């Protein structure tokens, strides 16, 4: 037992960022050599990194990546070592991969904070650390990052551009659109914009504001919205002005039955379980629904659009991660929890459940049989085995967000059906 306690003490020192003595490092190395999993070997790499020996740690994490390519802690460990070697571009590429696998993961947030700290991006560091601490106020590493942020000699706060609240951003944007003579109209959570091609495009307001919050440039709000208005005014329908064929850029999304009342003019068809299938154009900055006017102008049919969108989504199944549902919030679980997240993080996860490729991943990770499904979060789809009454109950109790679809569905070999309706007022 004393050996076990000593090992745990050494591991806690590593997790706290402390430098090990030679004897402690040798103890950790010895125990890691007899361990088939990645945890202790990764702890050795972290210990070396804590001591500033990132060059020695690099071959260790590279070997772990080859042996455990799907392990998120190993990926993040590799990222940290690259940051220690100031190979920021490679580290950022790995972080994009980690975010795609596990959106909102506190461990990913902390490494993002480290990268932003190295770049002197004060506002981003503070945002990442606050988000991580909001998920776990006792996270020692996040608290250490907060202390490092407060003590670091970074550019004065006046240099960093403060982000405006959402209401102020929207007011400034609508003013800029008017001055740019761009015809537009607010419709619920979307912005309808007259396209340069003559059609009408639908842009998700939330995506515009999120892009503004993440924008690295230090322009003031007014300069930012003026440039954004110019880009919106020059948007095409997506059928012209690009080298990529339209068929390669389409993706399907699931929306509630009444969404058509808000997305007037967007191409859609009836979907499963009383839902509707809409089509969006892949875009790094905007969420755009395919307008019917553009469809007619290109001589395309609903059938060809539908087939292309599903074919594209079939080619990109998302990772499936165990999660915990705690007090209405979602947290990644370290082990199987009964609830899993289909976590592509691009807004297409609900539709992915209807693809053959994603079903194969579900069978591998969750198991054979029918599944309970929650689409209450637009950015992620949640599943549980239908035979697990407790897990399905947790999904039924999960409060949907404003963009989510309420209720619990059942996914079978035949498709998606609605299994439970929430009580209506």
Mind explaining what this structure looks like?
- By secondary structure, this protein is α+β, with helices and mostly antiparallel strands.
- The chain folds into three domains: 2-157, Serine Threonine Protein Phosphatase 5, Tetratricopeptide repeat, CATH 1.25.40.10; 166-314, no CATH class; 320-420, no CATH class.
- It is built from 19 helices and 14 strands.
- The strands form two sheets. Strands 1, 2, 3, 4, 5, 6 and 7 form a seven-stranded antiparallel beta sheet that branches. A seven-stranded antiparallel beta sheet has the order 9-8-10-12-11-13-14.
- Helix 4 (54-67) runs antiparallel to helix 5 and helix 7 packs antiparallel against helix 8.
- The radius of gyration is 24 Å and the shape is globular.
- Mean pLDDT is 78; it is low at 152-160, 237-243 and 421-425.
Radius of gyration: 24 Å
Question: CATH superfamily of the largest domain, please?
Answer: Tetratricopeptide repeat domain
Structural class: alpha+beta
Q: Report the principal-axis shape.
A: globular
Which CATH class of the largest domain?
Mainly Alpha
Share of helix, binned: 40-55%
Q: Can you describe this structure in just a few lines?
A:
The protein has 425 residues and is α+β, with helices and mostly antiparallel strands.
What layout of secondary structure does this protein have?
Blueprint: H1 2-15, H2 22-33, H3 39-50, H4 54-67, H5 72-84, H6 88-101, H7 106-118, H8 122-135, H9 140-151, H10 166-179, E1 184-187, E2 190-194, E3 200-204, H11 205-214, H12 221-233, H13 246-249, E4 250-255, H14 259-262, E5 268-270, E6 276-281, E7 288-289, H15 292-297, H16 302-314, E8 320-326, E9 329-332, E10 339-342, H17 349-352, H18 356-365, E11 371-377, E12 380-385, H19 389-397, E13 405-412, E14 415-420
Antiparallel strand pairs: 1-2, 2-3, 3-7, 4-6, 5-6, 6-7, 8-9, 8-10, 10-12, 11-12, 11-13, 13-14
Helix pairs in contact: 2-3, 3-4, 3-5, 4-5, 5-6, 5-7, 6-7, 7-8, 7-9, 8-9, 10-12
């Amino acid at each position: 037992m004393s050996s076990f306690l000593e090992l745990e003490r050494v591991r806690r020192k590593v997790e706290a960022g402390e430098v090990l003595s030679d004897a402690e490092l040798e103890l950790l190395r010895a125990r890691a050599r007899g361990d088939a999993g990645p945890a202790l070997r990764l702890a050795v790499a972290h210990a070396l990194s804590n001591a500033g020996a990132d060059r020695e740690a690099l071959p260790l994490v590279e070997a772990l990546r080859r042996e455990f390519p799907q392990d998120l802690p190993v990926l993040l460990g590799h990222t940290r070592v690259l940051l220690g070697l100031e190979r920021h571009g490679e580290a950022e590429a790995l972080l994009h991969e980690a975010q795609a696998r596990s959106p909102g993961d506190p461990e990913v947030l902390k490494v993002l904070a480290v990268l932003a700290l190295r770049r002197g991006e004060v506002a981003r560091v503070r945002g990442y650390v606050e988000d991580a601490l909001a998920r776990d106020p006792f996270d020692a590493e996040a608290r250490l990052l907060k202390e490092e942020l407060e003590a670091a000699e970074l550019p004065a706060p006046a240099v960093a551009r403060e982000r405006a609240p959402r209401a102020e951003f929207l007011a400034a944007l609508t003013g800029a659109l008017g001055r740019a003579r761009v015809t537009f109209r607010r419709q619920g959570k979307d912005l309808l914009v007259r396209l340069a091609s003559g059609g009408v495009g639908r842009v998700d307001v939330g995506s515009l504001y999120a892009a503004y919050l993440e924008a690295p440039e230090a322009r003031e709000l007014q300069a930012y919205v003026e440039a954004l208005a110019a880009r919106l005014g020059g948007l095409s329908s997506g059928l012209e002005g690009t080298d990529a064929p339209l068929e390669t850029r389409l993706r399907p999304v699931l929306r509630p039955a009444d969404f058509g009342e808000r997305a007037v003019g967007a191409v859609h068809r009836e979907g499963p379980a009383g839902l509707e299938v809409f089509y969006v154009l892949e875009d790094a900055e905007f969420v755009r629904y395919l307008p019917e006017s553009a469809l007619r102008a290109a001589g395309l049919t609903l059938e060809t659009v539908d087939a292309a969108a599903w074919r594209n989504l079939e080619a990109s199944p998302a990772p499936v991660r165990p999660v915990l549902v705690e007090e209405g919030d979602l947290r990644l679980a370290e082990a199987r929890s009964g609830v899993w997240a289909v976590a592509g993080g691009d807004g297409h996860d609900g539709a992915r459940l209807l693809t053959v490729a994603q079903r194969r991943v579900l069978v591998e990770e969750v198991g054979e049989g029918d599944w309970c499904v929650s689409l209450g979060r637009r950015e992620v789809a949640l599943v549980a085995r239908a035979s697990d009454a407790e897990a399905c109950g947790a999904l039924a109790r999960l409060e949907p967000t404003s963009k989510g679809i309420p209720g619990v569905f059942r996914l079978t070999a035949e498709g998606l059906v609605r299994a439970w309706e929430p009580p209506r007022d």
